[in-house]
Amino acid sequence: MSQRSIQFVFQALLLLTGFFVSAQTQKSKTQLQKEKQQNLEKIKETEKILSETSQQKKSTMGELAALTQRIHQQETLMTSIKSEIYSLDVNIHENNEIIQALEEDLTHLKSEYATLLFAAQKANGKADKLMFLFSAQSFDQLVMRMKYMEQYGRSREEQADAIRRVQKVLGEQVRKTEIIKSQKDSLLGQEITENDQLTDLKQKQKTVIKSLEKEEKRLKKDLEETERAVALLDKRINEIIKEEIERAAREAREREAKAKAANVAPPALPSAALSSSFEENKSKFPWPVSGFISQKFGRQNHPVLKNIVLQNDGINIQTKQDEKVKSIFDGEVRAVAFIPAIGNSIIINHGEYFTVYSGLKEVFVKKGQKVTANQEIGQVFINPDGISELRFQIRKNTVALDPQAWLKE
Q: Is this model's pTM higher than 0.85 or not?
């Protein structure tokens, strides 16, 4: 392979490498933009919830929860913007390397072309082309000189064509880089705006915390009332689930007795298939209501009151006022109960698993009713502070599980 061929192969590899790297960067950029858009949609929803809680004359725990969530979303947005800027910087750097390689190759091509032109002019200055041909010593030499002149002319044309092609690719690469730089400038401006927004949100959060700290007695009284209601709710849930376990055990014994009397194998329990199907959908379940998690599962410090630890056997989802609540999976309503200070609760059985939806002002289902996934079962309750919050639990028999691990992200 000639030196010129090697150069063209190298050039082709360089361009292909640049193309694939850019494609990978573009894929990453597309994913980043998708994640940013999803976060912006969540921000819009949280802003609506925050707006409803902010209408109260006094600062509330709901407002603080919404602000905390909003700050988290804003920080996520900032991270996304920074990642996009970094991705564009990488893209610009890669493009600049390609541009530099193309410019070097173009300089080399032009230099070779200049050498060819000089050689042609020098040949024309020595003798006429016809004289050059007819001065051949033999016919074979004449043929060789004709081929030489033909190849010489074709070589110059190929060189000129190569220069034009490289110039075209170089121009396109420069234009792409300018577009990317423009996108980066736009993102840098957006970063400044969103950072100012984050500062404002954190200032509002500090103001709300200070206001709530002044109302320690009221907060403790509200907390004690809520804890009593939650304890009553958990007691009622455990009683209902134990009743269901005992009922299922009785039915299983009856089936086995009938099967033994008929001398046949006992039939498979429908609850076993339902439990298995429920387990298979872990981390895939839809949210029972739109919004954000205002209180996580398990033990956690109170966001305002010092030395106070909260215990939650589920998660609290703060949502918009009058939002409809949906069942996350097929099942059967086993109980509808009312608990003062919390509202209505619905317990749905899914084989060995149970889902509990508490904090409803209206209930659209009744005990014994079959429900399907995404079926509306009630409407969320609005407390005296204007907060709409669903208490959601998932249990395997009486064991409380973290619902966040079961719901879609």
A: no
